[in-house]
Prior knowledge:
The structure holds two protein chains of two kinds.
Chain A lengths: L1 E15 L5 E16 L4 E5 L6 H9 L6 E6 L8 H5 L2 E5 L11 H12 L3 H15 L14 H13 L5 E5 L7 H17 L3 E5 L3 H7 L2 E6 L2 E7 H8 L3 E7 L12 E6 L2 E6 L5 H11 L2 E7 L3 H11 L6
Parallel strand pairs in A: 3-7, 3-8, 5-6, 6-7
Antiparallel strand pairs in A: 1-2, 1-4, 8-9, 10-12, 10-13, 11-12
Chain B lengths: L1 H18 L3 H28 L2 E2 L2 E2 H22 L5 H7 L1 H6 L5 H7 L5 H4 L2 H10 L9 H31 L4 H14 L9 H9 L8 H7 L16 H22 L6
Antiparallel strand pairs in B: 1-2
Amino acid sequence: MIEVTDIHKTFTVRTRTGRLRRRRTTVRAVDGISFTVAPGEFVGYLGPNGAGKSTTIKMLTGILSPGSGTVRVAGLDPSRRRTALARRIGVVFGQRTTLWWDLPLRDSLTLIRHLYRVEAGAHRRRLAELTELLDLGPFLSTPVRQLSLGQRMRGDLAAALLHDPPILVLDEPTIGLDVVSKATVRGFLERVNTERGTTILLTTHDLGDIERLCRRVMIIDHGRLAYDGDLDRLRAAVAADRVLVVDLERPAPPVRLAGVVVERVEGPRQWLRVPREMNAAAVVAALADRYPIADIALREPGIEEVVTRLYRDGGRVTA
Amino acid sequence: MADALRLYALLIWTWIRAAAQFPVSMVLLGLASAAVAALDMVGIMLLFAHTPRIAGFTAPEVLFLYGTSAMSFVVADVLLGGTERLGEHVRQGTLDTMLVRPVSPLIQIATEDFSPRRMAKLLPPVVVLAFVLPRLPADWTAGRVVMVPVMLVSGTVIFAALWVLTASVQFVVIDVHAATKSVTYGGAFLTQYPMSLYARDFVRGMTFTIPLAFVNWQPALYVLDRPDPLGLPAALRFAAPAVAVALCAVAALAWRAGLRHYRSTGS
């Protein structure tokens, strides 16, 4: 569905250094990225700010043309066939709406219907379906400017999917949303992916999105792909430590166990960092031997930790 | 092309319907716009209260210039005036959302936020032309009669091309919004008066660089059967349609170049 081969994009940035003098610096926003996304995949695209995520998205949607390399989305070259591609792709920008501020949501969606030339009957069916899935009913007649962020995002999702595109590209769709709205959006995306087989590429800072939705993750840093593979292997490859939470029967000084570091003590509860290479069962057994234990829990590292580690090490991981 | 026009009309219609949900506000705003637009005409009338001629032209003749210029400008403004906000769309990143839709961003920007009150500005030029055309001291040969609609259409096309041209500049220099207004609105104001009012070099500039002289001045010289105060060749009087087409080509090229140059925003 999406094929990207060795794309590069550089920007020239002019900075003022004096009254009239300006210095030109070249920034490599994307520096040699290749990947393919198969039909029906749900791929998470992660990276710190300024890593080149949005630039990649813009090249995939035809807003920007790559400096070198080739891009094929739905069999088309996005920058040359931008309008043709627009019919086969849905795009959601979390930071800005594609709806019209002053129009009621329903009118915005009617405009979208005209822009995409969706036939009236098909539009009615699709709108009814999306209205139900996204629960748009209560605010279809409200002007977009009066919608809450969560409602607006649901409206934007409907707008991006009205023409039933086989590919959906989302740029930070859950940014700024509360927990409930996030859950609605995630649940909806999951259904779109599994029920309609829509290929989805999602960029986000919210690792919860990734853990919930994506089987495959791509991580970009400094314009290059630092990781491309499934989530579990990423965890293993980065070898983030696990944390053992132990409830002792009574408050005690930090436990002592070879190879294990106590991170926090709060009354009878202690947090122990267990390195990936150590056998957790052996640690628990050794602990139970020496201390009276009331309860015990083993926490897998959150993806936050995995990613921070990856960014910090600046290392590349091959899956 | 026909498809684009159909879509354009459809988008405008959607906006009009949206505005019509507040009919009182729509009518009042329309009347206010028409009143403001009529101020230029009032200015001309006031001048003629003190003098019988401006730069050698009588009141009906100047009102004819006003009517044709204002008519062309307002129609172009209604059709493409939205493009003056291109810089804003670039800055706010809303241009990106237009670029991912299967429709030319030019159509989208032109129709964005279309308000029917823009059309109310047609009222003063229509009234003035209806009043002044029968009173014009012109020898109405068939050629002169045909020239009036021809000049209105070419004038509209010239202004429309200027809108697109000045918008294209905003792809590159985002903050020139105010400067580009001097070309469009300034041009509309300049062409309301006989060009013989201005300095010779200035008029030459408006003939051969920004071709505002072809909006109404040169064709009007033919309709009114006047010699060119600058002594330019009489053939120029019939050049307006050719100039309009050429300017359109330039505007189209500039628009494409601007779109290619577009670099989007950071997020």
